[in-house]
């Protein structure tokens, strides 16, 4: 994709900046797969119930998608599980969905829905626990009400399961595969399923989870090899209650052909699961249009912030170089302005980040100038010249998005004259470039609605009746706000297109107006 795209930029970061600098909200769970999937104890300890990341694979890969009906196009991965009414259903027994959603919520933003965050967590759980890379798209839309019930349950017969998977658009072979792919992780817990699993009296498994295979925290084909060799302890295959042996009925439904092929080939198992996992998380209600598969930009600007400081336009920026750990690259940021001029600044190494269990890494460079022992993290531009686009020269190689440049909108920005009037109120001053066709300028109050969705409330800034010049090229538009507890981004409609600042400002950081 072409930068900038607020939604894709943010989805890309959430997907590929997993650990280290700019780590995404789930990074704390990526340490060890055991704890990512199961919480700090291999038994599912109560204290850290909410960390049970198995919920992610299960929530997303099983429960959330099951209500999709490929005929009428309803249901799918739409985060309807966040509603208490769904969590209370018997079919969702024993799952800490409420707690999972608290963790999921940390990744939700104006550009990332609850449903996207669930899908992302599932992808990360799979990839960081030895699984294949799963294509990730964004753009899921959160349901506004609970969905119809319909999660497959172990006591149902084979025909109902085949029908349930067919409703989602999966064939019988795909059903066998998908269940095997899901059941490479985790197991069945006694508490919610006392008719399937007995109390285990195992000090290493204090929560009485009978696992689907011997390597329950790792993605591998042992679920198939153990099944084929007859050594499996899968409680849904060799459970004492044959009525609930749904994996046995499903795995055997084609004479074991599919399971045998998985047992014979870890690679086939991995590639099949990658495809089916992706299809599963991409099962969405009709009308939802997903983005393309998110791939990392090789050179990605980040933290681009323009601030008007009187006669000086301050530009701070960083850039992420994908697929390198080189801390000594020569990185120059180049830019063009409104009057045919150019500028450049040598960026300094900042830090590293990584993704997918260290399979990928990235090096970050940023504007950072030390003058007389004082670090400034911006370059000073002439407001009249402004800036229109950037490009980057990395070890002699130019990245300018195939000649397009990385466009920058300098039509509006925060002015440093913004200040706190008194304890609960503040004045936003927005510097608007003279001559741009800004039909509206507004603050965007980033907040959460009663349905746990991030919403943006626009607060119009009235155009000043008399121009208030801040310098030769910009005038100030001002508005007072009285809620200091939320973040405000700045938005503007320029030539009919809406733009937003990439950061939301907290007014408590503003200086006092009377100072
Ligand atoms: C007919 C279809 C299926 C049935 C009847 C079924 C049944 C179950 C049951 C009873 C559990 C135990 C839950 C608990 O103890 O809280 C479970 C766990 C699990 N299932 Fe399935 N499942 C099915 C399909 C799938 C699919 C398609 C996936 C993913 C692709 C999946 C992924 C998982 C995972 C990851 C767990 C482990 C959760 C944990 O350990 O906390 N299941 N399944």
Automatic annotation (TrEMBL):
Domain Plant heme peroxidase family profile: 29-280
Domain of life: Eukaryota
Alphabetical list of PROSITE patterns matching this protein: PEROXIDASE_4
Classification via InterPro entries: Ccp1-like (IPR044831), Haem_peroxidase (IPR002016), Haem_peroxidase_sf (IPR010255)
UniProt GO molecular function: heme binding; metal ion binding; peroxidase activity
Enzyme Commission number: 1.11.1.-
Gene3D superfamilies attached to this UniProt entry: 1.10.520.10, Peroxidase, domain 2 (1.10.420.10)
GO biological process: cellular response to oxidative stress; hydrogen peroxide catabolic process; response to reactive oxygen species
Keyword field: Heme, Iron, Metal-binding, Oxidoreductase, Peroxidase, Signal
Similarity section: Belongs to the peroxidase family.
Protein name: Peroxidase
Organism: Mycena sanguinolenta
């Amino acid at each position: 994709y072409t930068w900038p795209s607020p939604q894709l930029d943010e989805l890309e970061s959430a997907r590929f900046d997993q650990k280290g600098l700019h780590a995404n909200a789930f990074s704390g769970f990526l340490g060890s797969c055991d704890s990512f999937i199961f919480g700090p104890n291999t038994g599912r300890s109560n204290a850290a119930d909410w960390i049970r990341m198995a919920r992610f694979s299960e929530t997303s890969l099983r429960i959330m998608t099951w209500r999709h009906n490929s005929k009428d196009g309803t249901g799918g991965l739409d985060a309807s599980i966040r509603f208490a009414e769904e969590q209370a259903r018997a079919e969702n027994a024993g799952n800490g969905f409420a707690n999972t959603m608290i963790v999921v919520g940390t990744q939700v933003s104006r550009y990332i829905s609850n449903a996207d965050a669930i899908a992302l967590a599932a992808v990360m759980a799979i990839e960081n626990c030895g699984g294949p890379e799963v294509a990730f798209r964004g753009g899921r839309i959160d349901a506004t009400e609970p969905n119809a019930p319909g999660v497959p349950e172990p006591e149902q017969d084979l025909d109902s399961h085949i029908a349930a998977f067919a409703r989602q658009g999966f064939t019988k072979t795909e059903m066998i595969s998908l269940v095997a792919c899901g059941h490479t992780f985790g197991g069945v817990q006694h508490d919610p399923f006392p008719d399937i699993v007995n109390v285990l009296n195992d000090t290493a498994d204090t929560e009485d989870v009978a696992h689907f295979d011997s390597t329950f925290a790792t993605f591998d084909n042992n679920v198939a090899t153990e099944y084929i060799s007859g050594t499996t302890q899968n409680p849904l295959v060799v459970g004492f209650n044959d009525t609930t042996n749904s994996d046995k009925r499903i795995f055997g439904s084609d004479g074991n052909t599919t399971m045998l092929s998985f047992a014979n080939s870890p690679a086939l198992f991995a590639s099949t699961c990658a495809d089916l996992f992706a299809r599963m998380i991409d099962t969405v209600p009709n009308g939802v249009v997903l983005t393309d598969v998110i791939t990392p930009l090789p050179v990605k600007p980040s933290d681009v912030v323009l601030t008007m400081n009187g006669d000086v336009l301050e530009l701070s920026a960083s850039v992420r170089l994908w697929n390198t750990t080189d801390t000594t690259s020569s990185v120059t940021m180049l830019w063009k302005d409104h009057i045919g001029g150019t500028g450049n600044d040598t960026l300094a190494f900042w830090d590293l980040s990584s993704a997918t269990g260290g399979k990928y890494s990235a090096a970050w460079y940023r504007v950072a100038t030390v003058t007389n022992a004082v670090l400034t993290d911006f370059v000073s531009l002439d407001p009249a010249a402004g800036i229109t686009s950037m490009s980057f020269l990395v070890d002699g190689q130019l990245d300018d998005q195939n000649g397009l440049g990385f466009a920058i909108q300098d039509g509006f920005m925060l002015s440093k004259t913004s200040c706190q009037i008194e304890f609960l109120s503040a004045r936003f001053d927005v510097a608007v470039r003279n001559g741009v066709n800004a039909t509206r300028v507004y603050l965007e109050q980033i907040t959460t609605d009663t349905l746990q969705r991030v919403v943006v409330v626009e607060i119009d800034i009235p155009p000043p009746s008399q121009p208030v010049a801040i310098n030769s090229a910009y005038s100030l538009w001002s508005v007072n706000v009285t809620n200091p507890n939320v973040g405000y981004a700045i938005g503007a409609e320029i030539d009919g297109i809406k733009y937003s600042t990439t950061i939301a400002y907290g007014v408590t950081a503003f200086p006092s107006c009377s100072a």
